[in-house]
Each structure stands twice: as structure tokens, then as C-alpha cells.
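Project standup — Tuesday

K.O.: blocked on the structure for the chain from last sprint. Re-posting the sequence here as requested.
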Amino acid sequence: MSTVVELPTRRATIRFAQKLASHLRPGDLVVLSGGLGAGKTFFTRALARALGVPREEPVTSPTFTLVHELEGRVPISHADAYRLADEEELLSLGLRERRGEGAVVVVEWGEPYLETLGGEALVITIEHAENGRRAHLRGVGSRGRELLTALADGSLP
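H.V.: unblocked you, prediction finished:
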């Protein structure tokens, strides 16, 4: 089960993140894929703002720190798996535990670790398109499919 969302502008990306945020609940997993500069961190920033992270709180790529903890209406763990060598390194970050504690977990470059992260995810692959960007959405597991269905209902940006 998958769908495609056209994101011609930054504003469209922000609206899409807001729509996703309205459906997220504690323990949800969002996995972001896409090349360097595709917009994964921009999307995460928009999602964090929509989840109530104040504008004064920087939302940056966790490339070197690996995980940023953010406080919104639900706790958010924003991770970057790009530099990880294997599943053991990922497990040491405690992301599965954070999900169990009720955090929304957003992992850039996390697709190879879906099962290790507990599955049940919305996977968003962002790519450059002729007009802005394009997001390919895929629901993994029952919760991932629920999120995908909720996003596909009604109008997207």
C-alpha cells in the first residue's frame, strides 16, 4: 500500500507535515529516506513545529549527534542512521525504548532498520521532482497502513 504526494513548494511540504502531525500518536514511527538535500530535515522541522516544538528550539540534522530529543505535544526522538554501521549501533540509541515510552520517533536514513525499530511505520521517501519535491509514502504494518490511509483521505497539499 503506497501513495505519492507532490510537494511543489516549501509551504506544501509544511502543510503535508501538519496533516501527518494531526494523525500521529505516541509510539509512532516515521522513517525518512531520500538523497542528500532531498528535504528530510526540512520535513522533520515542519513536523516538529506541527507537533508543538517551539520556534526557539532548533530542529537540525542529528548527523553527528545521532539523536535529538524534542518536546512537543508528544516527545519526539529525531535520529539519523546514515553513519550507523549495523543494527547493534542502532539498538544502542534506545529508539525502540523511546517508542515504548510514548515518543514519536522520526529516523532519517532508517529504512534498512525498519524491523529493528519495531516495524509498524510510515515510510516517506522524498525526492527532487521537476516541480519541487515528491514524497512516496508506504505504510508498513497495520499502524503504518492506518497512517497512510488517513493521509490519503481528503486532499493533500
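K.O.: great, moving the ticket to review. The chain has a mean pLDDT of 92. The first strand starts at residue 2 and ends at 7.
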